């Protein structure tokens, strides 16, 4: 018997970052002391107030279905947060959906605006799942290749020429994974003008919004004139609040789009977990000090990581403006990004993500996460320094 698979899978590879995590877990089970800098998981514990609220909900019997949109308290907390912190105004009853993860919110957003054969522009290097999600929907991700020479800035000059009669949306990620770039107002205004002129939907991933450095301020595209009616904002709790395992996110935007996105939620996952949503309310309303403390520590780790990388022959690294990744240029080692990453794994038991996994513009770079502890970062730096000398011979 032959088993027929849907043709959509021919256009989609497995997640490179998830595959790396599985490799780390397998090696550790075999006794290898792997130092993992490939993933995007904060090593901090979830803030106590969040845990306490979820435990209280569990003990109180709050373990049943919720409304598909989410519990009213969390919908209101999200809308209040967007208004106060982001200048984005949505009706909590019609403009927000609470989802089981920001990843689910992103997939729901793309499903809402893309039909098979449609195109979505994705600035690259980019998180590996953007083009994969488009492929799963039968759509095509069109790469807008950014350059390290201008700090991976997104401009209209890069975007123009990519639009066809099938283009429906533009994905924007700020702060960006893997580059760490944070949009400034000039970029944001160009993006919005481009979307308005070409009648595109903006799908904006703001999952790293709380992690910005050196006095920068995160800017939400939906807050700009002309953007609100065409912007779907994706966010969640994993990165800012160290809640990766909780799987909680949200999608916000104009009612005409959100009302359709709700159908995706209702016919797939139904709702996010009830007690997890209660923890989400606590995260948004009672963790400002915890978030500030994590950002302070990320700043120290960022500077440690960049300094260690810049000390390696053939490697240069610009300090990221946001998120918790260093995107290091390894072209001077004479190795491809995949070969560099493989050598680190084979000879130093350190895992990093090769830049080639992040699409056009990523080759010649590797992504290192400094969401790991200082101890792990120091250990990885020492192992890398011992490998550095022979690179010149490659």
What does this structure look like?
The chain has 394 residues and is an alpha/beta fold. The chain folds into two domains: 138 residues, Aspartate Aminotransferase, domain 1; 239 residues, Aspartate Aminotransferase, domain 2 (3-Layer(aba) Sandwich). The chain contains twelve helices and twelve strands. The N and C termini lie far apart (49 Å). Its cofactor is pyridoxal 5'-phosphate.
Number of helices: 12
Principal-axis shape: globular
Topology order in helix (H) and strand (E) letters: HEHHEHEHEHEHEEEHHHEHEEEH
Rg calculated over all Cα atoms: 21 Å
- Would you count the extended β strands for me? 12
Relative helix content:
25-40%
* Helix-strand makeup class: alpha/beta
CATH topology title of the largest domain? Aspartate Aminotransferase, domain 2
Q: Residue ranges: pLDDT <50 for 5 or more in a row?
A: none
The CATH homologous superfamily of the largest domain: Type I PLP-dependent aspartate aminotransferase-like (Major domain)
Number of domains: 2
CATH class of the largest domain: Alpha Beta
Largest sheet: 7 strands, mixed
Annotated CATH architecture of the largest domain: 3-Layer(aba) Sandwich
User: What would the average pLDDT be, to the nearest integer?
Assistant: 94
How are the strands of the largest sheet arranged?
Answer: 2-8-7-6-5-3-4
What is the distance, rounded to the nearest whole angstrom, between the alpha carbons of the first and last residues? 49 Å
Beta-strand percent range: 5-15%
Question: What tags apply to this protein structure?
Answer:
394 residues, alpha/beta, Aspartate Aminotransferase, domain 1, Aspartate Aminotransferase, domain 2, seven-stranded mixed β-sheet, 12 strands
